[in-house]
Amino acid sequence: AAVPGVAERMEPDGSGFHxxxxxDYVIVVHGEVWLVLDHEEKRLGPGDSVIQIGARHAWxxxxxxxxxxxxxxxxxxx
Length: 78
Prior knowledge:
Layout: H1 6-9, E1 22-30, E2 33-36, E3 41-44, E4 49-53, E5 58-60, E6 68-75
Antiparallel strand pairs: 1-4, 1-6, 2-3, 2-5
């Protein structure tokens, strides 16, 4: 409900992989997450950031500690 249209972007296998038509700025504020791409994974911690556009990806929190991300998604003409 907080992000309309995101559920429709998720791949049906439950993996969490999705692709958006936006330019995404993501900053890890607290905790740690893994950015999972088709051929690599990156661990991100507080202060780390990612800028991506249209990449197939998934986010995973592999810890028991909640993570907080600041995300700005800017519409794209792609």
